[in-house]
UniProtKB/TrEMBL annotation:
CDD domains with a match to the protein in the record: thiolase (cd00751)
Organism: Bailinhaonella thermotolerans
Thiolase C-terminal domain location: 259-380
Superkingdom of the organism of origin: Bacteria
Name of the protein in question: Acetyl-CoA C-acetyltransferase
Length: 381
């Protein structure tokens, strides 16, 4: 099987709900990182064979195949096609998988994997609301009801169920969340993100970090459910952003004078309990390690998306992953989670952190709607 190499990765800053990126059209948001990727790698954009872009709320300004409209909005060659995919929060991580698989199969040599989401312009749940307005019991039909009953299915309930199953107290969740902010604050102060960010609209730094966040300050926040432990402070933030990754074959590397920065080592994707919804990173990680013939201790850096604090906490407990090596520069609780963009953002962060720290292997995983999860292992070169 042919090797797939990561030769470039760039992201926007992650903007908060009312921040500097909140009024940028999603197509322009994605176009910005596509242009930056081409400029930074120096590749001939006409040689790109496809643009695969993750986006969750594909309605309104994010509809009509935003992968294609973003590429054209960036002023890039018309001969390059684009396709937009939805694997919920893992959409752009799946885009990376599809791009790598195209190269590994030998059917493609140069593919862009990207992601975008403007949760300010297209609010979370927009696609669901459109269906509900037409009287459709979306997204769960009769067959679903026969299988799972009429119980609530939501990420918020899933987070509460995880906290209960693994016995995490609110104080433990809040302590994890405060540490996420502290790590992100340190990373920004030390300039760790500067190489990977393409500033946009006057924004050069991630906007979500709240300096000085502590267990005490989080204790004052109201939980989403009475008697629950999940609240805004131990959940990911509503955000806006985009990222793009260039995947190349060995032939493309030679033909275009590119520099491989990492190779895609192992890919996995799994389904998991859709009621708990958020537990998928556990079996996805186990599957990736098994397929890659690696152990958890072989991994130098982990990125496990902080959709809610119980997710990485339960994942680490079950897999044996070190929380010290997980999200070392903060996660989505501090930096934000622009849904369809997050997978590519995490990969960009993972690559740059491996380069900064000198680590060899990095593993990325995230929970996804419907009870799914991707896991990706890369090897720094």
């Amino acid at each position: 099987m042919a090797e797939a190499y990561i030769v470039g990765a760039v992201r926007t800053p992650v903007g908060n709900k009312k921040g500097g990126l909140s009024t940028v059209h999603p197509a322009d948001l994605a176009a910005h990182t596509l242009k930056a990727l081409i400029e930074r790698t120096g590749v001939d954009p006409a040689a790109v064979e496809d643009v695969i872009m993750g986006c969750v709320m594909q309605v309104g300004p994010q509809s009509l195949d935003i992968a294609r409209t973003a590429w054209l909005s960036a002023g890039l060659p018309e001969n390059v096609p684009g396709v937009t995919i939805d694997r919920q929060c893992g959409s752009s991580q799946q885009a990376i998988h599809f791009a790598a698989q195209g190269v590994m199969s030998g059917t493609q040599d140069l593919v862009v994997a990207a992601g975008v989401e403007s949760m300010s312009v297209v609010p979370m749940g927009s696609s669901v609301m459109m269906a509900l307005e037409k009287g459709m019991p979306f997204p769960y039909g009769e067959g679903w009801g026969e299988r799972y009953g009429k119980q609530e299915i939501s990420q918020f309930r899933g987070a509460e169920l995880m906290a209960e199953k693994w016995g995490f107290s609110r104080e433990e969740l809040d302590a994890y969340s405060a540490e996420s902010h502290a790590r992100a604050e340190r990373a920004i102060e030390e300039g760790r993100f500067e190489r990977e960010i393409a500033p946009l609209n006057g924004v050069a730094k991630d906007e979500g970090v709240r300096p000085g966040t502590s267990v005490e300050t989080l204790a004052g926040l109201k939980t989403l459910r009475e008697g629950g432990v999940i609240h805004a402070g131990n959940s990911s933030q509503i955000s806006n952003g985009s990222a793009a990754v260039l995947i190349a074959s060995e032939a493309a590397v030679k033909a275009h004078g590119l520099t491989p920065r990492a190779r895609v080592h192992t890919l996995s994707v799994v389904g998991s309990d859709p009621v708990y919804m958020l537990t998928g990173p556990i079996p996805a990680t186990e599957k990736a390690l098994s397929r890659g013939n690696l152990k958890i201790d072989d991994i130098d850096v982990f990125e496990c998306n902080e959709a809610f604090a119980p997710v990485p906490m339960a994942w680490a407990r079950e897999t044996g992953a070190s929380l010290e090596k997980t999200n070392p520069n903060g996660g989505a609780i501090a930096l934000g989670h622009p849904l369809g963009a997050t997978g590519a953002i995490l990969m960009t962060k993972l690559l740059h952190e491996l380069e900064r720290s000198g680590g060899r292997y990095g593993l990325q995983t995230m929970c996804e709607g419907g009870g799914q999860s991707n896991a990706t292992i890369i090897e720094r070169l």
